[in-house]
């Protein structure tokens, strides 16, 4: 690592540039030294989590101790949550759809949707569903549903599928197996498409917690009764960490996304984050600097701003990860702390024309976290299409990626020039491996920050408050 320019770079070329987050006017060396003991303890706690799955004070929804096992997922080994056999089964599943299933509809919300959308966007881009089957190499079209209870879109999706598909697969993803948003839209679409038989051949696959007995989920029971094939949301893996499990990988398999490369990226990041040397451990460094930026400088909003359309969904995935993991009323001893950074989705350059005014001149309460893609697979040169228009002629000859990066750099410089905290994750290119690195870094980072702030990063008790009110309200509606 080059301490002068404040960048930590992994062997793959992935880097974290924290030059505008650390040093004069930002988080200082003295700030870091002051919490050295806590950083050390956080590192030990994460080492312990990796080895045993234990996280001090973490309880499941029903109040019993629960393991935290997401850090196993990058390692495909016998006896682990992802085993050679389970990965082979996923790949076979993906192959079995090619040239046979026209469209897959993936139902899910929160952790059962956001990561899947990231994998889809990065691999397929915006126009996958308008491509021919040949262009998709026989893989099906893929639509998402259940991530809202929107009547209009749900019915438009049904009409679209009826118009363009004969062989349809519904994949219902829900860890708890009974989430209102997912199950209500699934039932509407299932019923409507079933009625379209024999024009539509319908298959259903369920992804849920496969516990049995008293813990059996409603979806598991239903899938058993209906004979639907199943994949699992593994025990000890919360929804927001499940993109590395069968939850995310089932979508990956449907579109021919490189599962091995993605997990290899996550693994490379995990290996890099095993060192106790904070300056070489990107997840710990990210957690420490952001924890201190909030605690000592009031920067308790994090604007996550990739410079790439197809990485916008990473920002949306990160919203759930950050908000549910760190937004906590109490610390682990029950003391009220009202902790957490508010996540904000932004995209460069789009939001430079919308949010940047607030980032630059508003309250000094934000960190802007950029994501930069260094090399683009397709990168046109701006042509000199109108030589007589001098202002347009001036930008001719630049590659679009050069214009994009110049805009990002200008934004970063303007912000830091006014003492506004920002940082950048740099992906050498937008591919499955570097995506695995980035998502895993963020997941491990919130685990570290939970330790630093002494909050349980693996529960989400706050979402129960509205759920307690919702049940009776739904009952009332039926009367
Ligand atoms: O996968 P499911 O059980 O359907 O849950 C979907 C989502 O529901 C809730 O809102 C939780 O707060 C989220 O953490 C979860 O990802």
What keyword list fits this structure?
alpha/beta; six-stranded mixed β-sheet; Rossmann fold; 2 domains; five-stranded parallel β-sheet; binds 6-O-phosphono-alpha-D-glucopyranose; 16 helices; single chain; 479 residues
| Helix segment tally | 16
Helix share, percent: 40-55%
The count of strands amounts to 13
Query: What is the topology, as strand order, of the major beta sheet?
Result: 1-2-13-12-8-11
Count of all domains: 2
Please, could you describe this protein's structure?
Pfam families: PGI (PF00342). The protein has 479 residues and is an alpha/beta fold. It has 2 domains: 7-60 and 262-463, 3-Layer(aba) Sandwich (Rossmann fold); 70-257, Rossmann fold. It is 43% helix and 15% strand. The strands form 3 sheets. It has a 6-stranded mixed β-sheet with strand order 1-2-13-12-8-11, with helices on both faces. Helix 4 (114-124) runs antiparallel to helix 11 (312-326). The longest helix has 22 residues, at 432-453.
Give the helix/strand layout.
Blueprint: E1 7-9, E2 15-17, H1 29-34, H2 36-52, H3 84-97, E3 103-107, H4 114-124, E4 141-145, H5 151-164, E5 167-173, H6 180-194, E6 201-208, H7 218-226, E7 230-232, H8 246-255, H9 259-272, H10 282-297, E8 301-306, H11 312-326, E9 328-330, E10 336-339, E11 342-345, H12 356-361, E12 366-375, H13 390-395, H14 400-417, E13 421-429, H15 432-453, H16 464-478
Parallel strand pairs: 3-4, 3-5, 5-6, 6-7, 8-11, 8-12, 12-13
Antiparallel strand pairs: 1-2, 2-13, 9-10
Helix pairs in contact: 2-15, 3-8, 4-8, 4-11, 5-6, 9-15, 10-15, 11-15
Bound molecules: 6-O-phosphono-alpha-D-glucopyranose (G6P).
Catalytic activity: alpha-D-glucose 6-phosphate = beta-D-fructose 6-phosphate
Main location: cytoplasm
Keywords: Cytoplasm, Gluconeogenesis, Glycolysis, Isomerase
């Amino acid at each position: 690592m080059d301490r002068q320019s404040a960048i930590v770079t992994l062997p793959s070329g992935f880097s974290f540039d924290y030059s505008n987050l650390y040093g004069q006017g930002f988080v200082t060396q003295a700030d870091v030294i002051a919490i050295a003991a806590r950083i050390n303890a956080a590192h030990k706690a994460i080492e312990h989590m990796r080895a045993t799955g234990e996280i001090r004070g973490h309880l499941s929804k029903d109040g019993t101790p629960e393991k935290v096992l997401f850090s196993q997922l990058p390692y495909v080994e016998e006896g682990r949550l992802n085993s050679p056999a389970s990965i082979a089964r996923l790949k076979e599943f993906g192959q079995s759809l090619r040239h046979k299933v026209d469209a897959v509809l993936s139902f899910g919300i929160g952790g059962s949707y956001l990561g899947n959308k990231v994998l889809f966007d990065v691999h397929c881009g915006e126009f996958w569903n308008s491509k021919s089957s040949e262009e998709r190499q026989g893989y099906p079209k893929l639509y998402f549903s259940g991530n809202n209870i929107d009547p209009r879109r749900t019915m438009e999706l049904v009409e679209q599928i009826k118009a363009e598909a004969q062989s349809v697969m519904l994949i219902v993803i829900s860890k708890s197996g009974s989430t209102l948003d997912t199950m209500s839209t699934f039932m509407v679409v299932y019923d409507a498409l079933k009625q379209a038989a024999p024009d539509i051949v319908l298959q259903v696959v369920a992804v849920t917690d496969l516990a049995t007995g008293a813990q059996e989920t409603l979806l598991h029971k239903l899938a058993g009764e209906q004979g639907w094939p199943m994949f699992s949301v593994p025990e000890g893996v919360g929804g927001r960490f499940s993109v590395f499990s069968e939850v995310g990988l089932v979508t990956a398999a449907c579109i021919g996304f490189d599962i091995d490369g993605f997990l290899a990226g996550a693994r490379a990041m995990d290996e890099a984050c095993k060192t106790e040397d904070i300056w070489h451990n990107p997840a710990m460094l990210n957690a420490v600097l952001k924890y201190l930026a909030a605690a000592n400088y009031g920067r308790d909003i994090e604007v996550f701003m990739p410079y790439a359309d197809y990485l916008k969904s990473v920002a949306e995935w990160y919203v759930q990860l950050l908000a549910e993991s760190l937004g906590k009323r109490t610390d682990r001893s029950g003391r009220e702390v009202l902790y957490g950074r508010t996540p904000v989705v932004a995209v460069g350059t789009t939001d430079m024309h919308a949010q940047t005014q607030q980032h630059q001149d508003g309250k000094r309460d934000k960190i802007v976290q950029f994501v930069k893609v260094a090399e683009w697979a397709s990168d046109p040169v701006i042509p000199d299409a109108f030589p007589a228009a001098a202002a347009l002629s001036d930008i001719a000859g630049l590659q679009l990626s050069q214009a994009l990066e110049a805009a990002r750099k200008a934004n970063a410089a303007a912000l830091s020039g006014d003492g506004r905290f920002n940082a950048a994750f740099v992906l050498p290119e937008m591919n499955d491996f570097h995506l695995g690195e980035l998502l895993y870094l963020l997941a491990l980072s919130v685990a570290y920050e939970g330790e630093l702030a002494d909050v349980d990063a693996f529960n989400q008790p706050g979402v129960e408050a509205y759920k307690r009110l919702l049940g009776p309200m739904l009952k009332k509606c039926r009367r």
